[in-house]
Amino acid sequence: xxxxxxxxxxxxxxxxxxxxxxMYVVSSIxxxxxxxxxxxxxxxKTPDAIIxxxxxxxxxxxxxxxxxxxxxxxxxxxxxxxxFYLRSLPSYRGIILGSRIISGFIFSSFAVAGVLCTAFIFxxxxxxxxxxxxxxxxxxxxxxxxALLGICLGxxxxxxxxxxxxxxxxLVLSFAGGLWMPPSALPTAVQKISPYLPTRMYGExxxxxxxxxxxxxxxxxxxxxYAAIFLxxxxxxxxxEEQISFS
Length: 247
Hints:
Blueprint: H1 3-19, H2 22-40, H3 47-77, H4 81-88, H5 95-122, H6 132-141, H7 144-156, H8 162-176, H9 188-193, H10 198-211, H11 217-246
Helix pairs in contact: 1-5, 2-3, 2-5, 3-5, 3-7, 3-8, 3-10, 6-10, 7-11, 10-11
């Protein structure tokens, strides 16, 4: 069985497994849309504001899926016998992780679609108001550092404590990054550190598309640096876990 076929089957069955967990679907996919409906749309007083908030909560929805699916999923799975069984199979290296990446971005698409549908139904946002090509490219490319961060957390934190740790990281980064409210409305102390956070850089990547202005290069480079750091850490943590579990 070749690499692509193995990757397909692993991705397919992982997606089926996640679909059989109603609480995961509700919390990861529907929660960002509900949060946007309750707190985002009522504060959107102008057409520019609704576009800005739609892009912000789209980032928030992707973050909720990739961070939790990678961190909680990996942390809990690597302590099961099923994980060790999969690792014993004669498959290509990276199949298990690759399938989780694919399924994570599939569910992220559903979460973003929920936020967009909420905006179209409950506001005056129109399809033509969104630059679809740049929106889709940046919303998923910008999520890569957070997927890698989720891998780091999943490999580092045990299954009994991963959920509160992931929640803390998720909520703090979302708030301080300005994904819930404009960065200018954040507390003064938070405003000082916000530009250095990956979520703020992710937001700026999307807000420049919403405002139709060039993106400042420091945010692009910043996300690249975070991605490189988290990639290095994830590789190191995976190798460390292999040495501990299989040596």
